[in-house]
Design a protein that fits this description.
The complex is a heterodimer. Chain A is an alpha/beta fold. Chain A has eleven helices and 13 strands. In chain A, helix 4 runs parallel beside helix 5, helix 7 runs parallel beside helix 8 and helix 8 packs across helix 10. By secondary structure, chain B is an alpha/beta fold. Chain B folds into six domains: 237 residues, Thiamin diphosphate (ThDP)-binding fold, Pyr/PP domains (Rossmann fold, 3-Layer(aba) Sandwich); 138 residues, Rossmann fold (3-Layer(aba) Sandwich), CATH 3.40.50.920; 198 residues, 3-Layer(aba) Sandwich (Pyruvate-ferredoxin Oxidoreductase, domain 3); 149 residues, Alpha-Beta Plaits, CATH 3.30.70; 65 residues, no CATH class; 175 residues, Rossmann fold (3-Layer(aba) Sandwich), CATH 3.40.50.970. Helix content of chain B is 39%, strand content 16%. Chain B has 41 helices and 37 strands. In chain B, the strands form seven sheets. In chain B, strands 1-8-17-18-16-19-20-21-22 form a nine-stranded mixed β-sheet, sandwiched between helices. Chain B has an eight-stranded mixed β-sheet with strand order 31-30-32-33-35-34-36-37, with helices on both faces. Classes of the chains: A alpha/beta, B alpha/beta. At the A-B interface, helix 2 and helix 3 of A face helix 2, helix 15, strand 17, helix 21 and helix 40 of B.
Amino acid sequence: MADLTTTYMGIALKNPLIVAASSISNYVDKVKRAEEVGAGALIIRSLFEEQILHDEMTMADFMERAAYISPEIQSAFYPPIESGGPREHLMWVEKARRAVKMPIFASLNAASPGSWTSYARQLEETGVAGLEINYYVVATDPNVSGSELEQRLFDIVESVAQIVSIPVAVKLSPYYTSTPNIVRELEKRGAKAVVLFNRFLQPDIDVDSEALANDMVLSAPREMKVPLRWVALLYGRTQMDLALNTGVHSGRDVIKAILAGASAVQVASCLLENGLPYLSTMLLEMQGWMETKDYRSLDEFRGKLSQQNIPDPFGFERAQYMKLLMSQQ
Amino acid sequence: MASDKSSRTMVTIDGNSAAAQVAHALNEVIAIYPITPSSPMGEEADELSAAGVKNIWGTVPDVTEMQAESGAAGAIHGALTTGALATTFTASQGLLLMIPNMYKIAGELLPTVFHVSARSLAVHALSIFGDHSDVMAVRQTGWALLASGSIQEIHDFALIAQAATLESRVPFVHFFDGFRSSHEIQKIAQLTHEDMRALVDDQFVIAHRMRGMSPDRPVLRGTAQNPDVYFQGRETVNPYYEATPVIVQKAMDRFAEVVGRQYHLFDYVGAPDAERIVILMGSGAEVAHELVDYMLERGEKVGVLKVRLYRPFVGEAMIAAVPKTVKSIAVLDRTKEPGSLGEPLYQDVVTAFTEAIAGGSWDRMPVIVGGRYGLGSKEFTPAMIQAVFDNLAAAKPKNHFTVGIIDDVSHTSLNWDDDFSTESSGVHRALFFGLGADGTVGANKNSIKIIGQATDNYAQGYFVYDSKKSGARTVSHLRFSRKPIRSSYLIKQAGFLACHKFTFLEQFDMLSQLEPGGTFLLNSSYSAAEVWDRLPREVQQQIIDKQPKFYVIDGDAIAKSVGLGGRINIIMQAAFFKISGVLPEEKAMEMISAAVEDTYGRKGGRIVDMNIRGAEVAVERIERVSYPGEVTSTFSMRLPVPAYAPEFVQSVTAEIIAGRGDLLPVSALPVDGTFPMATTQYEKRTVATEIPVWEPEVCIQCNQCAYVCPHATIRMKVYDAESANGSSPGTFKSIEAKGREWKGMKYALQVAPEDCTGCGVCVEICPAYAKDASGQKTDRKAINMAPLTEELRHNEAENWDYFLALPETDPATYNRFTVKGSQFIRPLFEFSGACAGCGETPYIKLMSQLFGDRAIVANATGCSSIYGGNLPTTPYAVRADGRGPAWSNSLFEDAAEFGLGMRLTTDKLTQYARELLDQLIAQAQNHNELLEAIRDADQSTQEGIEQQRGRVAQLKDLLEQDGSPFAAQFLGVADYLVRKSVWVFGGDGWAYDIGYGGLDHVLASGRDVNVLVLDTGVYSNTGGQMSKATPRGAVAKFAAAGKGLPKKDLGMIAMTYGNIYVAQVALGANMTQAIRAFAEAEAYDGPSLIIAYSQCIAHGYDLRHGYQNQKDAVESGFWPLYRFNPDNTRAGKQPLMLDSKAPTADIEGWMYTQNRFRILRNSDPERATELLEMMRQDVVTRWKMYEQWAQFDI
């Protein structure tokens, strides 16, 4: 049987399939189930600082609205309870971690600089194997330049990497002007891996109701091409591990990612679509391919089709694009 | 109030807080029970303990909520007798319930201080407001009574009382005026733990401990004594009572040494050569002090004697405090003792003078008169006290007078000059009219705090609410001054007046309270240029007359634009700071930022930014309005009630609605608290911003919207099409009625636009969706919310009147015990003041529809008694023939017994009527057929009952014609030949806690009493304290960590009797089951108990989704539906019928849509998870138990 083990940020995984930050981690039973069906690791859905603030605001609003309604009710209905902030999330992270043997990673999306480090510390205390920074900004302010936004990311990663002793991965946006530069800068600042890429929810417009629609749309296999290209381009150019995320829907897709140079692959949409046991199908598919190809370990073919290792190093660059354009005509 | 000589922290708190902080610091065991207005004291003590705050001996006091005040007193007695330092907080009926234990505690010389926010007693009516009736009812128990008049005094006397009780061993009631002091916010100097240590001598604490009962040094207390020694035993305590005043004065002197404020048993303020003085206690003494200061400046020889220690009453000390020059004295009591020689304080003063004269310490009797004032928080102003002084100046002063009312019956009242005022120009006075939910009160409390903390100003805040929980109006009274504020009365003339809700201008005459040349701020969607013509004529006239600086601001639009939603508080607060002149303008913005930081600082930068932005925009967008010199408006203020309202409503109710109730004379009020029915229909409050609008074509005519409507503002009728011919208003809607029995007839569904609260429950429940052109289901329903525009209001109001005039649906054409059929019956409970989306009222409304014409209701005090019976208008109504539910509220604790008494009357008088009927049948020469038909009538159906009514009416006619003494006797009871339905309504606080003993007894009595428990799982009316019905895992007051124990299973307990009909219902989860339960319970010839799931704002979610929540409660197994009918047993069947399925949904889903559970998950997720697991276990266990019982082969 082929050996599927890999290491990701220095942590040994029994296979490269990592369950991505998603609603799968909402229930401890599902986390356990993910392990049972063979997941190499799992990332708990993000701790969103804005969500915590929003919840606090909603509660405060409710408390105040119901506080002054009659001479007999001149205070809020509940005693003044200090909000637990991230406590609930931390508890779930720890609970999930304790429930399984596979490595559990936490994901963090904070809003203010101070919160990044304090939440990172608190997440580390839950005993997770590593931390994924989920940095997501929609740049709406014309006064803020791209480099300023990048600098904010660098500062956050640096401060977090300094304060925690567990490895830190950065889940990147696909929309940076120079991804390799970003990756190099992140490496300098102590990141141990980059996840390529974050898949942002984009609002849609419902023409019937003439309103914004925010339906959760699962990824499609074709979406894998963007991260695949960037993994292939970056493999060998950084000491950091590369995790491919978005559009991985089969065992063969995982193979593609490894061929491009990925240390690990994150999956969620295909599991949400097909159920958790589909993960074992993917693993079987990988096993089958490797046996057919007579690979005994992932390292034997990891990065084989990365930019560095292919005969036509321009295949992942602009030339390929031109060729495609030409062929369409 | 002397100033504080040290640099103690100045805090801006209310009277309850001032007492609770000291009580918490000086006790170890606190047992309480919520009762307005004292509840916040217990709550604050609980909050302090929950936060780990220690008392001065370094331990966190244990706070326990009891099932009743009697229980709290019992627990305190137990704690004291075993040597703990223990206290409680209470008021009114609560204090009365403590009396038996108070005798015991005093008899056993157990030191304690009960802090009482003195409140009226329930007499001809309940009043939650303040007077001394409660404390006067314990003056004979052997407790010392110490009275505070200001917030600072409450704080100080709480400590002095504790020091004195420990040394004297005599227990103390420390009291202050309910609401006026308990809820007034003032800036005071906070006592430190060091101050308390300096006052409380540990040797007395240790002595108390050592007297505590212990098996290590056993003694026996609580003996029974015989005629030989009981009397002597009673006299043993005299030395303690003699010592107590000395000890109190010693504590006051020591307090002065430590803190700097000197008090005496009696404090005299006034001219040393005063000729006229008033004697009183409580907050009124502060008002008198203000007036006396004013009069002294004008050279008058007057004074006020403030009574501090009322019991033991030390006549010598009082006499010593009174100037020898006094010629006449008025003693003012804030209580009434009908039939007495005079009220208690008056009698004490007279006795003291008599004894002083007899003993030679006083020369001759001054003129002493007594008077009553301030009952039920009646305003007590300097003008009224001036009237008292004027009375004293008369050649023959009126005795046993009243002041503050117009008594045109017994002519006791003194006239006062309403325009007289002692208000000084150095005081900023501001009035704010807002809505309960718009944050006005919160913002004002915050402003007071900020100004109090950030400046040298003294600050005072007092908040007045109306009696309706939906769309409640609040009036905030704020004073700021460089000098201490003694004005314990409402602001009559303010320099700053803010109206936060535009439509109030049409309803309330607020401009009359603005000083000429003052500042008027209006929250208006109309700009400065547009607003003038939108004001009613009366408002325009007053603006012209008073020439205020008039500003408008569009608070709602600004709030929306900066992301604050409907919260206008920060905007209006900023506007206030900007233009009020309380602070220099440059300081204003600083204050606003401070206010924002104070309120939202903890919530993070963005929220602070949003609020600061709101404040900045507010300051920019305030517009000064320039107005013309003449009235131009084309409309006037609305009449409080329509012109067609009955005479009583016009002359009394309307005056109360208009805010002129204070001017109603005694003769206007009923002598025994009896009021006419159905008055809510005249109070068109128009509180909704959107109302449901019917789409007949989509409607399937299921009537569910009316079934769930909490305020009976949706009704439907099926009527002969001819009735609508030609006369219906243009926008009136109707459609062909569905159903063979109504062929050719019309179905109309109508909303009462001015009574609807806009909760949206009807829309949520509506099962009918409109389809689009392609036949696809849309979001549109048969009933949809639409903004209540002036046009919509006008049209629908007209339609509503037309609808009411249509004939009622023929009862022969529907089954009244179906969801649809029941809603053709006119609700005899309508337009109550309950919260929008209330979960209780639909059950009451249903009962009123099914049985209201023959129901007598005993209602426990609580939400249902407040929305059921709080003036000005009441919702219980009558049908066309004048029949309807007779409703009364006795007390909180006794509703079941009260209802049983009604049943006993009904049974007895029915029996008597039947005996008379039998006698008549035996003697009658004719009409035998009628008489026998009455005797043998089948009254098991409504039809049978109506027929019997017809026969009884004939009988009464005959009896009246007869005119004999026998006939007169029979006439008095003949109506009992028609079946009556006795109901008891109450919440879970009553049924599970305070009234449980009585409820149990009544249910066990076998009598035909129907009990409806409106179970919200919390004390809703007093603000959300835990009851035994509170679910496990829910956060409530006194359950800050989430209730750890499961909800008591009241239904199961009742079922174990075997002969009680029990049903658990959730109207939204299974409408048919609910109606069946009501029908069976009423039909059952014995006690019935219906436990009704009632969603409540205390649960913390938008009650629009209340019925989804009910469904979730049932599906998760939290609220299994069942009926237990003992009649089944007689038929050889299993009595317990489960009406819901085994739990199918995880209870987590039901729990975490509600803030009462979510708040715990957020603050303490580990505990929340633990309790969630237990809840999961609870529902499974209980279901299995029910299931086994239901399947048990009998």
